[in-house]
Amino acid sequence: MAAVSGSGRDARSSEGILVLASASPQRRAILEQLGVDFTVRAADVEERRGGDPERLVVDNALLKARAVPGSRVLGADTAVAVDGDVLGKPAAEAEARAFLERLSGREHVVWSGIALTEEGTQQTAVASARVRFRDLDRRDVDWYLSTGEWRDRAGGYAIQGRGGALVEAIQGDYNCVVGLPVAALVRLAPYLIVHSP
Amino acid sequence: MAAVSGSGRDARSSEGILVLASASPQRRAILEQLGVDFTVRAADVEERRGGDPERLVVDNALLKARAVPGSRVLGADTAVAVDGDVLGKPAAEAEARAFLERLSGREHVVWSGIALTEEGTQQTAVASARVRFRDLDRRDVDWYLSTGEWRDRAGGYAIQGRGGALVEAIQGDYNCVVGLPVAALVRLAPYLIVHSP
Q1: Within a domain: B140
Q2: What gap in Å lies between CA A163 and CA A182, rounded to an integer?
Q3: Buried (b) or exposed (e) across A106-118, using 16+ Cβ within 10 A?
Q4: What angle do helix axes B93-103 and B138-147 make, rounded to 10 degrees?
Q5: What is the CATH number of the domain that holds B146?
Q6: A102: phi then psi, degrees, rounded to nearest 5
Q7: Quick check: is B197 in a domain?
Q8: Which of A36, A129, A173, B161 has the highest count of CB atoms within 10 angstroms of its CB?
């Protein structure tokens, strides 16, 4: 477990309104965008893989939230699903290429789960969004692989980075695709964002 | 016309692969996200207002692209449309409140047009995306207005900022809502992004 400050917060000061149990820079960026006063404590857990993506992301979000101390902890997990398969983080460039070729010219589904633990209580929520890739030719895939951005990304792409150039359209919550389902989080805990002082 | 460097580029050096004829920081952020090597030269033009939004954003994008010198210039414009009305930038907080109350709990359409001028030729493209706001109560609107983010934003909100907490879901190109229709730009000029060296 690593403690990192978010929103310019000093890690040694109080933990803010929320502890984010994730090392993901994109999740941190979303909370910063929303103006949430939070601290990052990345959870070091053995994540579950495979199985039903809707259940998987909630289970993993909960694993992460429970693994980290704090008075209010948010865990999150994201999975890319296509034809009943869950695409994890590619192990190597060849697997990233296979993922991108599989996602080309069609729609897939991104699932994101969140879990919020607070004083012995826990709440979870899950969201999905459809993402349509444009038809990718060999040059597109070569270019994207050359950016290196596929590394450590579920499904082998990052919509909020160069990967934005692969996407034709989405249907649902954009932040769910990035890694944190904001609309679901606002429903679960509006006081974190909208009604915070 | 103001010259500002993008992507860490020195404004006095060559202008990169592209001149962006817009002062919008969100458009600049999108091009940076995509790794485009560009320079910003904000166009100082009298934009058209009202009328058919699809035509309006293309006309304004072209006005901007033509107003700025450069060997390859990109203009862009964005409009928020609801019930046949185009919502511009709110003149004051009271108008921003009226916009948010009007957009609450329903879908509206965001149109973004682009124009690319190069050696006497010009190409244009337009895209639209549907944005669904959740039901906003008085506290939600008060909170959002208090962030000040409504200023200088078509429709009175910024989806890539605190305004992300107002949005339930979108249908289409997220970047079109932010202000630059990336999927359309990639179709128009793939060499700018995907196939750039």
Answers
A1: yes
A2: 20
A3: eebbbbbbbbbbe
A4: 140
A5: 3.90.950.10
A6: -75, -35
A7: no
A8: A173
> Does residue B6 form part of some domain?
yes
A6-24 pLDDT, tens digit per residue, is: 444 444 357 889 999 999 9
Please choose, from the candidates B181, B190, B125, the residue with its C-alpha nearest in 3D space to the C-alpha of residue A140: B190
Prediction ipTM score: 0.87
- Report CB contact under 8 Å: B171, A175: no
In terms of DSSP H, where are the helices of B104-173? 138-147
The residue from B77, B83, B135, B152 that is catalytic is: B77
pLDDT tens per residue, range A75-101: 999 999 999 899 999 999 999 999 999
CB atoms B165 and A34 under 8 Å: yes
pLDDT at B178: 97
A159 CB neighbours in chain B (<8 A) are 174
Contact residues, chain B, for A195 at CB < 8 Å: 139, 143
For residue A39 the two structure tokens come to 């601290």
CA-nearest residue of chain B to A168?
B183
Give this prediction's pTM. 0.90
Domain that holds residue B13: 2-192
Other C-beta atoms closer than 10 Å to the C-beta of A17 total: 19
* Rounded CA separation A25/B102 (Å): 34
Residue A156's contacts (CB-CB under 8 Å, 6 or more residues apart) are A87, A89, A90, A95, A96, A99, A100, A103, A150
Beta-carbon separation of B165 and A182 below 8 A: yes
Residue A37 annotated as catalytic: no
Cβ contact B62:B21 at 8 Å: no
Query: Which one of B35, B143, B171 has the shortest CB-CB distance to A195?
Result: B143
A122 domain-assigned: yes
B173–A172 CB contact, under 8 Å: no
DSSP state of B83: T
Query: What residue type is assigned to position B100 of the chain?
Result: L
The number of folded domains in chain A is 1
Pick among A27, A31, A33, A192 to test the B interface (most B CBs inside 10 A):
A33
Contact B172 A172 (CB under 8 A): no
Interaxial angle between packed helices A138-147 and A93-103, expressed in degrees from 0 to 180 and rounded to the nearest 10 = 140
